[in-house]
Amino acid sequence: MFGTEGISSHPGEIRAALGSQVKTAAGTSIGSSSQDAAKGSGLMGWAAEERRGVLTTEKSLWNGERMKLLSKLALCCGIAWGMSGAAQETVAQGPPLVTATGPEMQMHAGFEYIGQQVPSVTSREPMYGVDSGLTVGITRRLGIRLDLGYARTQNLLSSGHPSDILSYMGGPVFYPIRTPRASPYVELLVGGARVTGATPDGNGGYIRGYANELAWAGGGGLEIHTSREFALRVGADYMHTSYWDANYALAGQGNLRAVVSFAYYWGARRR
Questions:
Q1: Tens digits of per-residue pLDDT, 92-146?
Q2: The dihedral of CA 53, 203, 18, 197: what is its sign?
């Protein structure tokens, strides 16, 4: 589910300009009318903890029309894929001269680097991790790619707090040229990303928590074929995610991602 949670942590009391129901570590309740202000700002709920000054906010974007739309798209893709598989099987059962073997399939796994743009900070923070996925060929030059990546840094902005990005996206990939030796490609992926981090709040503390929001990536790369079944892929793209800024509001992140992975092909050979 898409959702968000932000936490501001620094010693001492937290002064919450948003207001709302505040509970200390001892369980004391402070204020009640401020809860309406928090709801009006689009925050589902938050609490403050006196021991570390923690502010928590939550929100879900999977409810309502967006969830219905994504469900319909997933259902349509499943139906289309089923019809395509049935058609391929029918052709394969025809005369012996027809030798269709189904769509080309490609599985990849490797490493990724992300230059994360932290909200309210001008510099990019390096993150390292892994990337994997599956590509299904529709035509010789067009396919559908599913991509799953995870990158992490242990000490974001020298704050002592970790940060990571878990991305899960899918979309079309296009090969303008395909040769036995190399194939350049461009891709556009859409899905979600769960981001954790630590944004400076301007008062010596950091906003900590997570944001699980809509994400997309666009870029390209080159596949170098080492054999009929294997290839080395080198690619780069711009990946957009979201995380909390210094004002406790979600802000877009313009991240740069580089991927080096190994690909394995099976099914029809369209290279």
A1: 444 444 444 568 899 999 999 999 999 989 889 999 999 999 999 999 999 999 9
A2: negative
Q: Which stretches within the chain are classed as H helix?
A: 34-40, 65-92
Residue 139 lies in a domain: yes
Q: Number of folded domains in the chain?
A: 3
CATH of the domain at 235: 2.40.160.20
**Which ranges of 24-155 would DSSP assign to H, the alpha helix?**
34-40, 65-92
- Flag whether 271 is in a domain: no
Interacting residues of 101 by C-beta distance below 8 A, sequence separation 6+: 92, 267, 268
- For the stretch 66-79, pLDDT in tens is 555 555 555 555 55
264 Ramachandran zone, left/alpha/beta (phi>0; psi -120 to 50): beta
C-beta of residue 148 within 8 angstroms of C-beta of residue 165:
no
- What is the spatial distance between Cα 131 and Cα 38, in angstroms, rounded to a whole number? 38
This prediction's pTM? 0.69
